[in-house]
Automatic annotation (TrEMBL):
<dbReference type="InterPro" id="IPR018376">
    <property type="entry name" value="Enoyl-CoA_hyd/isom_CS"/>
</dbReference>
<dbReference type="GO" id="GO:0005829">
    <property type="term" value="C:cytosol"/>
</dbReference>
<keyword id="KW-0456">Lyase</keyword>
<dbReference type="Pfam" id="PF00378">
    <property type="entry name" value="ECH_1"/>
</dbReference>
<dbReference type="InterPro" id="IPR001753">
    <property type="entry name" value="Enoyl-CoA_hydra/iso"/>
</dbReference>
<protein>
    <recommendedName>
        <fullName>Ethylmalonyl-CoA decarboxylase</fullName>
        <ecNumber>4.1.1.94</ecNumber>
    </recommendedName>
</protein>
<dbReference type="GO" id="GO:0006635">
    <property type="term" value="P:fatty acid beta-oxidation"/>
</dbReference>
<dbReference type="InterPro" id="IPR029045">
    <property type="entry name" value="ClpP/crotonase-like_dom_sf"/>
</dbReference>
<comment type="function">
    <text>Decarboxylates ethylmalonyl-CoA, a potentially toxic metabolite, to form butyryl-CoA, suggesting it might be involved in metabolite proofreading. Acts preferentially on (S)-ethylmalonyl-CoA but also has some activity on the (R)-isomer. Also has methylmalonyl-CoA decarboxylase activity at lower level.</text>
</comment>
<keyword id="KW-0963">Cytoplasm</keyword>
<comment type="similarity">
    <text>Belongs to the enoyl-CoA hydratase/isomerase family.</text>
</comment>
<dbReference type="GO" id="GO:0004492">
    <property type="term" value="F:methyl/ethyl malonyl-CoA decarboxylase activity"/>
</dbReference>
Amino acid sequence: MGKVLLERTENGVVWLTINRVEKRNAIDFDVMDSFKRVIDEVEGNKSDKVLVITGAGNKAFCSGGDLSVFHDLHTKEEAYQMLAKMGEILYSLATLTKPTVALLNGAAIGGGCEIASACDFRVASENAKFGFVQGKLGITTGWGGASMLLEKLPYDKAMTLLMTANRFSAQEGQGLGFIHKIFSEQNLKVECEDWIQAYVEQSSGVLAAYKQAAVKKWESANLRDRMFAEINQCSILWESDEHHEAVQSFLDAK
C-alpha cells in the first residue's frame, strides 16, 4: 500500500488518507508529491465536490515533517527548498475551488496543524489533540501555516496557538475556533460523512463561486507573499544551532 490512500465516493467526496502509521503519518517528499497530484486532480475533476484529508489509524492525523528525513537539511538554502515545496502545495490546497476538510483522527502536530489550517474546515475525533509545537524546536511554522491561520482565526486566538507552542484538546480547539465539529471516535468517518452531506448537496458551481470569493479576499491580502515571507524566516531559523540541537534531542529520545 502507498504512503497516501485515495478513495472517491459516489456523491463526490474525495478521501485523501496519509498512510504512514509507523511514522505517525509524517510528511516526506513522496507524500508531498502525492498531495500535489491529488489536489490537481480534484481541481480538474468536475465530479469531485469535497476533499477530506485525514490520517491512517486512530493515533495521528499528521505529525508534521518527517524529521528523520528533513534533519539532513542543514543550511538555509536546503531548508527553504523543502519548505517552499510544501508551501506551494498548501497554498494550492487553501485556494482549491472545492470545500476542503481536515479530519483530525488523532494528534496533529507542527506541520500537521499547517495542513489543517490550509483546509476550509477542521473537524476532529473527541480524543484528538493538536499543537503548533514548532517553537519548541527553535523554528516557526515553515509551510505558511501562521499566515493561513491568521486568515481563519481572530488574532488573539491564532497567536495563543502559535506563540505558546502548547498542545490542545479537540474541545479546547473548538473553543478557540480552530475545530469546527467534534465526532465520536467509534463512528468518526460516518459522522463526518453525515456532516459533509449538507455541502455535497449544493451544486459544484455554487461551491466554487463561494470559494472563489474567499480566494479573492486572500489575494487582496497578499496571502501567498506573506506565506513565503514566513517560509523564508523559518529557513533562517532552520540553520541555527538551537534548531538542530532540539531536533537531535527529539530523535535521540525516540
